[in-house]
Design goal:
two-stranded parallel sheet; 11 strands; L,D-transpeptidase catalytic domain-like; single chain; about 160 residues; 3 helices; globular; nine-stranded mixed β-sheet; alpha/beta
């Protein structure tokens, strides 16, 4: 119970911080230095550091029925990425465009970190109010300032564990 209260306090603190704030805490959870651990229940992303600490950021996760769990790895990173909705997204919402150029209307925000599993990404957002919620089609949304920080820290090939 105490752990749950502590996690709730961290999440509330993280959501109350300016988007540019970096939170670094002692960390003894799963993951090797340089890896990413995503806790969907907490709606937090951890970037594991070599010094026994982790950067922690609030995220949005997939809606009910759209969540993925498992292990994968980072395969690519992009600045100002274009967005191409998947066929299933367009079937669900035919009004979606086939392509959205980089810019303020782009749902991927200003950075995207591509994962080896399907079309999953860790990316920024043009809907910052969704952070802390189960709101996406499966990807992991971050504030643009936070995903920019993570983008600079993580390398292609880094392991990602989604729990």
């Amino acid at each position: 119970m105490l752990t749950l209260l502590l996690l709730a306090a961290i999440l509330m603190f993280a959501l109350a911080q300016p988007a540019s704030a970096q939170l670094v805490y002692a960390y003894d959870g799963p993951g090797r230095p340089g890896s990413i651990v995503i806790n969907t229940r907490e709606r937090l992303l951890y970037f594991v550091r070599a010094d026994g600490e982790a950067h922690i950021w609030p995220i949005a996760v997939g809606r009910e029925g759209r969540q993925w769990f498992g292990r994968t790895r980072v395969i690519n990173k992009a600045k100002n990425p274009p967005w191409r909705p998947t066929e299933s997204m367009r079937a669900e919402n035919p009004r979606l465009p086939a392509y959205v150029a980089p810019g303020p209307g782009n749902p991927l925000g200003i950075r995207a970190i591509y994962l080896a599993e399907g079309a999953l990404r860790i990316h920024g957002t043009n809907a910052p109010g969704s952070i802390g919620r189960a709101a996406s089609s499966g990807c992991f949304r971050m504030h643009n300032a936070h995903v920019t920080q993570l983008y600079e820290l993580v390398s292609a090939g880094a392991s990602v564990e989604v729990r």
